[in-house]
Specification:
heterodimer, A: 385 residues, alpha/beta, Four Helix Bundle (Hemerythrin (Met), subunit A), Rossmann fold, 2 domains, nine-stranded mixed beta sheet, B: 466 residues, 434 Repressor (Amino-terminal Domain), 3 domains, eight-stranded mixed beta sheet, 58% helix, flat
Amino acid sequence: MTLVIVLIAVAVVLLVSGGVVVGARSRRRAPALPRTGAPRPGAPRPGAPRPGVPRPGAPRPPTSPPVMAATEPETSSTPETQTARPVLRDRLGRARGLLAGYFDQVRGRGGIDEATFEELEEALILADVGVSTTTRVLGDLRDKLRDGALSVTDPPALLQALQDDLVSMFEGDVESLAYADGDGPTVWLFVGVNGVGKTTTIGKLALRETRAGRGVVLAAGDTFRAAAGEQLETWAERAGARIVRGSDGADPSSVIFDAVQHAASRGAGLVLADTAGRLHTKVNLMDELRKVRRVAERPPGQLTEVLLVLDATTGQNGVVQARQFTEAVGVTGIVLTKLDGTAKGGVVLAIRSELGLPIKLVGVGEDPADLVVFDPVEFVSALFG
Amino acid sequence: MFDTLTDRFDAIFTRLRGRGRLGDAEVAEVLREIRVALLEADVNLAVVRDLIEAIRARCTGAELAKHLTPAQQVIKVVNEELTATLGGEALKISYASKPPTVVLLAGLQGSGKTTAAAKLARWFRQQGRHPYLIGADLQRPAAVEQLRVLGAEIGVGVFSEPTDPVSVARGGLAEAQRLGRDVVIVDTAGRLAIDRELMDEVRRVSQALRPNYTFFVVDAMTGQDAVQTAEAFHQALQLDGIILTKVDGDARGGAALSVKQVVGRPIAFLSTGERIADFETFHPDRLASRILGMGDVLSLIEKAEREYDEEVTGRALERLQTGTFTLDDFLDQLRQLKKMGPLTGLLSLMPGVPKEMRDAKVDDRDVGKIEAIICSMTPLERTDPTVLDGSRRLRIAHGSGTSTTEVNNLLRQFKEMRKMMRGIGPMAKLVGGGRPGNPSKSSKGSRKKVKGGRVTPSSRGLGPTR
């Protein structure tokens, strides 16, 4: 706390002296426009100091009981279940272009020289793989060439070797999502920064899981963003899943707690817990998430997956996000969304090599069927256009 | 956001400063490091290449200023090239002669369009306009609902109907005219640049509205792809500017540089936090300096100007000068500060704040604790903290839910702060009068004073440029 006081002191001093300058200037420039002392619209919204007053376990006011959706789960009533699973490469076919050009250039070369490696480097960097991972991967490839562990002379073979190397990075990963083996409901917790597609991912998964015959309860743990609950409710209706909501600004932990209780009492096997998007740099919001995780773990619920949802357009900041969220709540896997655009999502390679996190699901389109299990071979070949 | 990039440059330049002469080999090494720093900051490869070439050409060419050391020259060149890449002038909104002025927002899914729409509406209202919001995102479930909630929060009307985006846009525009609103902000659905159908749709919306401004909303965390997406949107919609969102994270924001370079339109606004007030106009020249570690004094002053209550500040200043700054005044200031957003963000704007402090993990909840402690004091105690004996301190600790150690801490720091403010009071008075101040007056004693001394001359120096 000492630090905070010192900082405030510094800030006050700077601002008061700065304020003098401001005041003097506005007096000079615009004497006709006195500033009103009226309360500014910028005052913190009522729900803003989110975890400022944590009310662990405190009962919510009676005015805001969790809303249980009346939608009865009507599983397997949807006929068009088994559409052909979209292949990542088909989707990405649309997005070819820039990178393909690079690799074609490499393929078309007569031999392997320094320029070949430079082109490979640029292509990987353009796919958001990042400088350090790129350097390491290409360095390994170079070493293997020198040691004779790899004997290729033509560029296409070199490209193949590089692809194999990248694919092997995901070796031993379990891509499937884990269900609890005990009695209590399985809980999957979804975390991530703002706007990556957490709610949409949950909606699509809910559809998949109800079709597979599981009883699904959605926990609308994003009580901060306006209308996030409504968004999830629309998905609950589509999927025929139940939803548990709290009032806006309610403690997300309590919403998730209620959802687990609700699932246990109704015999639903799976709880998909949404959380508000948060930047990993916000200390208080990450603390809030830690608490959400602790509550989600409580029996009868069994937390088997903490999934970090990551937008494929994210650059090198993705590594930092993965590191921070893993530190805070022990991420078990990544969901890579929006891979159907022009972005390659290469940052997951950096994340995999630095943190060892497996990629579990990939989102390749707006359709619910477009959320598919991650396939390293497909992903890497898509990376190579 | 740009701090990490700043740190990288800091490190590179620190090593440069230690050298007398720079040979070709050294220049090449420095350029390589700058290249890696920029790439790691997600600046697009093509943009990096151009930048590096430009810097190389000038560093090795004949263009050498005699009075600078080689290291200084490199820094100067990098600074100039960065500024050039970021663009010279800030975007100035000119309003349509026949209202309403129409602003269209477009971008990828999840880039923050809906939030930006509400923030922009609030910003226009602060400029004395009468904004109106149109929710044309009929794709994402509850997107319109989100806009309505945000609109209600800031007291701006929202128009939408469940038809199709083009009719919603037309209907909204007509409604805005009927209501006499002079700015219309249109939120659209997120779409991928390669989705022909949806790109066509947004083009039709744009044709129906003939917007005065089309802003591309882009996430500061975007990687290399930012360029392709921006290019596609620019082709479809003729962008006028860029709104960079989620700037409050620790992404290095290279996307900003790339998009600016590719589209050739200025970055107009930064969305800097979760609260609706966390939104500011972007000043490229200031940002380049910030990347190079010079702080962003002007943005800070502007922010203060917007959120600070002049009356309260004036009172504080008076107390400061007379040396009668009380805990009550401190509380006032604290509350004003809170309005401006999280402390960490604030500090990153201040020049001369040492790196350790900028990086310090500040828990904004502590601010609440301090507020609670002061609020638990009687008026007498707030004016004259010397009456606080052990039993009073215990009572305050109980009352505020803190410990006596925390109360003691606050009191000790407050005392020190008062001491330091006395040193600054006379100087502030001089500056207030517009006469040249003497920063050295504040430089006796603790290290905090030095910082107070530094901000004043620089803000004075930069002030008239506005």
